[in-house]
Amino acid sequence: AKDVVELPKIKVGYANGDLEITDVRIEPLAKEPRISMAKLDGKGMNFPGLMRDLDVTENTVCQWDLDRTLITDLKGTLAPLKLDAQMYTEASRFEIFDRAYHDSARKHMIGVRAPQVVRARIGVRPKAFEFYDVRGQFGHSRLLASVVSLGFNNQFKLGVSEGTKIELADIGPLVDIPIAGLAELDANMVGTFGDPVLEGHMKVKGFEFGGFPLGDIERANTRFRPLVLELSNVRGKKGSSHFDVSSAKLDFDSDATVLVDAEVASSDLDIRDFFAMWHFDEDPRFAPIKGRGAVQASVHFDFGGKSDKCGGGFLQVRGEGRFGEMELFEEHYDKGSASFDFRWLDRDASYLGFELDLPSFSLSKGGGVFLGALSMQRGGILRGHGVGTRVPLPAFQSMGSLADYVSGYASATAEVYGTVDQLSFDASVVLSGMHVGTSKLPASTLDVALRPVEKKKPVVVGRTRCGAPITAPFNRARWEQDEADGIFHVDGELFGGQVKLSDLQVTRQRSKTAKGSVTLQDLDVGAFAEISPTLALANAPKGRLSATIDIAELPLDRPRDARATVQLKGLDMSRGGAQVELVDAKPIVIKDQSVSAGHLALGLRSLGTAQAVFDLSGGVTQLGSDPKVDFRMELRPLDLSTLARALPSVDRAKGQVQGNLSIKGPLKQLSYSGGFQLTGGELALAGVGNTLSDVEFEISVDSDQIAVRRGSAKVGSGTVKITGDARLSGTELGKARFVITADDISLPLTSGVETTADALLIASWDPQAQGPGGEAALPRVTGDVTIQSFRYTRPVTMAVDISTLASRGKRTEFDAYDPVDDRVEFDITVKASRALTLSNNLIDAELVVGRQGLLLSGTNQRFGMRGSLKLKPGGRIRLRQSEFEIQQGSVRFDDLTRIAPRVDVTASTEYRRYSDAAAATSGSAEGSAGGSSAASATGGRWNITLHAYGDTEQLKIDLTSNPALSQDDIVLLLTIGLTRAELDQAQSASVGESVALEALGTLTGADQAVTKAVPVIDEF
Hints:
By secondary structure, the protein is mainly β. Among the domains are: 1-225, no CATH class; 580-750; 789-811 and 822-1020, no CATH class. 8% of the residues lie in helices and 61% in strands. The chain has a 55-stranded mixed sheet that branches.
């Protein structure tokens, strides 16, 4: 067309590559000259050539190979210059230097190794070559830019949009420092190509710098100006810890590759998170260090500068920390604080390249405090000192369960020296104010020294630039072998010299081993017995123990593998009146997972008695697996006559006891053999008429049972025998059953009561049985007691109270009952082969036990009786001058929870009075048929019936007569021979008054006689 230039295809060299342009159309003579192009296909171009050919700069700091560039649909005007097109680029080798790309002294700053794909819209304007809506993809990263402007006047503009995500590993390393993390940023950069300024916002997840995982940067303000990156208002998180960086500066424009300076603060820093930043969390040697607190520090990192003399970077952290609760090597502290200056001069030397100064630190524990200072120089050289004051012993976790029973305070001074791998220290420890339970113990003083042991040195795989050894990586397998790093040497005295330690050595390792000598000199055993809750609440033993313990080897976590010798030198213990003493002892040997005693003799005595000496020998083997017991105990012959001196209730005792017991087999299935015998026994109790004589008793023990082989004794003319056994399974008792047979036993109950009886009783117990409420069943006694003879002749004093005679009772009182205190239950039937005889000043009668007998049932706390007794007719009850003949009578028991007899007795008498009232007696003379109210009593005869009935707590007595009299008249008649009317008449005359008073005086106490008749029945 006219005034149109069309170029179907053009091939040119451009930007150090080749361009092929197709379908170019130019309208140069148009009012606004126009140009269009179908496609521009560029190959082998690069960014420096592009900047040169666009006349932007020949000294770009960016090297970027544009392997393929495809521009399509270009159109626009040449004047004014406005061209737009679409661009697609495949690129590689993107790298930014600290100076011009062609400068031989250039240094790498940042780059992208992965291939890149860039899509954008191109705009060519009078002042700049611009890219719009840029979308770059490389590796795992995505770059979004709203505009990239390359000004023809050396001006540069970049707008990074939200949604940009850069995997830092895709653009690393930063200089020589590896970086990682997923960054999200939005920023704007303006300025010249030589001095652009970038400002924006950034956050990074999983940020790593120089191989150190520093956590997440949750937010940060950024400002970059070649070649300095400044960060402010940084909020970060590592693990569960948060930290703030008020300012940070990364300077790439110094003699160092990079200089980093930052001010860091955290109000809640977990020490474990801090260790994780430097990979120390993976080292189990640092595992026992835990805590949280506030830290404020200044951080300086020099990579490649003057301070980085050894290469790898120089790191310095200075500041102070205040921590709440802390744990250091299995001990808990309430709080701690320290100022610190940490310097990592030789990174390749690991911890041997550290320097650490703690000019002051403090640790609080249970109200006490540790104060000190510590320094560590290169090579792991340590120097330090400290002092601890009044730290409560229960606050130490190493006390374990003893902390519940032991109190007191520890104070100490210590000097630390040596190296991290060859640690040494010397400490002096004082334990004061110690109490075990309620017992106070004297003070203790200890000297503790740690000395390193010679061990294989770490494998050196090279040397650092500064000549320090580079050791092989941490060998966890070797660490798990748990070789000893040193030996603790302990000397001193505990509890005022009761325990003496002589070079007791304990290895410094996780599974510690001890050896050395321990001497016990009159150790207060009673004080330490209070460590046992059972003994502390009960009557704790008292006594002293002396011994020498020579420890050849004692693994503290495997005491069964100990090798030691214990020589007992003295033992004197007492508890509850019993005393144990050491008679003789050979050394107790502990070795090969066994404990053996060649011979040990212990004496047991009660106050005032001779010793019962037990000879013990044997031991336990296979302590580490299935313990086996081989033990023998022998009781030397013991004369029982010494019991009489120790027991006030024993008048006389004699006989000899001896025996032996062997225990063998696995602990879970022990077998027993042996037995004990009492021969020639005799026992007389104070205040008891009968004596146990010819006592013979023999029990045997075997794997299945404890059996009474022989048990007999004479009681007066009678005999008692016992046989039976208890099942035995290991150390557990099973069912027990014993038969007790008594023949013709005379029971000396009390003066005036004589009885003889036979008995056949069975005592049984089943530990596995349960009661009605699911509780353990009680031992049980059942059987029969047969009374062969019973005679009651004790005199009884009686009185009668007219006001309470007809209705007598008393309030029943019950003690508090707690089933927990029940110890035995019984069901015993009491029978009698003949009538029971009552013969005293009150009664002559015979009681007959019912055919079924009397059932005595219950427990030791609550028991009752069921059954009946009958009084034979014809017996006599005497009330003063009157004698009643028993017509019928019975006593019934119906309550199995208490002894509650119900009485029903009827007796009668004939009362005669002659006309002379003063001579009124029972006789044969005839008198008036009724009472008289004349001034003097007239003669008469009355048939009087007494009826007592009811339970003993509400017993009623009815008195009737023929001829009929009131109950008051009957009582007065039986007591003083007068009725009420006769007594009133007699009192109206002086003569009668004196006679009545004389009669009453001679019968003093008679008015109480009838009332006391009931207790007589009760006693029957």
